[in-house]
């Protein structure tokens, strides 16, 4: 018995030391990046075996001394898509919809699909970016309104895009789609008879106590400042019909709560996560689940999603087998920096 207790104590100490070493190395990487780029505010969250770690650098804005922390609000942009796909999977578990259902009768009545498109597009096609539907012309929208480009997207403009489509030129092939996730949000609304805002709150934010995850109203004191690629200040994108594709705002503390839930197969989010992690699309360049990219090497399979708003960049990833997850939020739009940070953390610490 004495030997067993001694062994257990040594094991616990070893595990604690390993976890402490990992977090120190992650913090060192983030510290080094901030020293080289002091103008870029950053917040990072890490979880392993339910143990949480956070580090953050920078100020909320130039007019304050308030430091960014784990509860500071960022635009998570297209990370919103993995929240939406998780809600879709929850609806599947609840028998509200099926992944192989055609979307024809699940959309609002304002959409009238061309006969060439009927009984063609499935929910899983939308979720894995292979529906073949035309997408929103962001370049045109940005040119018209650089601060709030999504002001040009309404239910009427979306209906016009879908209803005028008579051919799916690349159906079954990967092409990233904002309009696809907008439609998934509307399918959720019809399935539950409620707004997307209420659905995500009732099915995810409230159960997981994600108090720093915001939808329509994000005028809060702990909001970070967004900066475009030139370094100028940029407005947070306002909530509109495209919200399920990329308009949720959140913090590293809440994203770690989400990671904790998705890694726990006993939670509703975790059960749904297992569905979203199935491979729905594969070619020589990528494997796609529902809203998540799947990356596999000889030792690991990780699930990840990045996001870029007009003024901020973000990325989240997790390894179910090794039970860890990490989220990186930047107050600048800098996709190269957030990807390099994740690559460095993964290659030197987590791999």
TrEMBL record:
<keyword id="KW-0378">Hydrolase</keyword>
<dbReference type="InterPro" id="IPR001466">
    <property type="entry name" value="Beta-lactam-related"/>
</dbReference>
<keyword id="KW-0732">Signal</keyword>
<dbReference type="InterPro" id="IPR012338">
    <property type="entry name" value="Beta-lactam/transpept-like"/>
</dbReference>
<feature type="signal peptide">
    <location>
        <begin position="1"/>
        <end position="19"/>
    </location>
</feature>
<dbReference type="Pfam" id="PF00144">
    <property type="entry name" value="Beta-lactamase"/>
</dbReference>
<dbReference type="InterPro" id="IPR050491">
    <property type="entry name" value="AmpC-like"/>
</dbReference>
<protein>
    <submittedName>
        <fullName>Serine hydrolase</fullName>
    </submittedName>
</protein>
<feature type="domain" description="Beta-lactamase-related">
    <location>
        <begin position="35"/>
        <end position="335"/>
    </location>
</feature>
<dbReference type="GO" id="GO:0016787">
    <property type="term" value="F:hydrolase activity"/>
</dbReference>
């Amino acid at each position: 018995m004495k030997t067993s207790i001694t062994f257990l104590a040594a094991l616990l100490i070893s595990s604690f030391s390993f976890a402490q070493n990992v977090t120190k190395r992650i913090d060192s990487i983030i510290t080094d990046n901030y020293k080289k780029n002091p103008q870029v505010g950053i917040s990072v969250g890490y979880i392993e075996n339910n143990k949480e770690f956070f580090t953050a650098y920078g100020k909320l804005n130039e007019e304050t001394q308030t430091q960014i922390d784990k509860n500071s609000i960022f635009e998570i942009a297209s990370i919103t898509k993995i929240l939406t796909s998780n809600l879709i999977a929850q609806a599947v578990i609840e028998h509200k919809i099926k992944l192989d259902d055609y979307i024809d009768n699940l959309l609002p009545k304002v959409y009238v699909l061309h006969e060439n498109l009927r009984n063609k597009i499935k929910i899983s096609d939308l979720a894995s970016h292979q529906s073949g539907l035309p997408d929103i012309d962001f370049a045109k929208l940005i040119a018209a309104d650089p601060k709030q480009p999504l002001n040009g997207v309404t239910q009427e403009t979306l209906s016009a895009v879908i209803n005028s489509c008579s051919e799916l030129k690349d159906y079954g092939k990967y092409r990233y789609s904002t309009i696809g996730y907008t439609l998934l949000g509307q399918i959720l609304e019809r399935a539950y008879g409620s707004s997307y805002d209420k659905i995500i709150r009732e099915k995810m934010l409230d159960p997981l106590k994600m108090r720093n995850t915001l939808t329509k109203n994000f005028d809060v004191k702990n909001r970070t400042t967004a900066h475009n690629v030139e370094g100028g200040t940029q407005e947070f994108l306002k909530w509109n019909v495209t919200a399920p594709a990329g308009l949720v705002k959140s913090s590293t503390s809440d994203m770690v709560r989400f990671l904790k839930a998705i890694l726990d197969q006993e939670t509703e989010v975790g059960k749904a996560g297992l569905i979203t992690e199935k491979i729905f699309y594969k070619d020589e360049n990528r494997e796609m689940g529902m809203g998540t990219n799947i990356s596999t090497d000889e030792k690991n399979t990780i699930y990840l999603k990045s996001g870029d708003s007009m003024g901020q960049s973000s990325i989240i990833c997790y390894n179910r087998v090794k039970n860890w997850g990490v989220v990186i939020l930047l107050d600048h739009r800098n996709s190269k920096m957030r990807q390099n940070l994740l690559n460095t953390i993964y290659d030197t610490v987590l791999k």
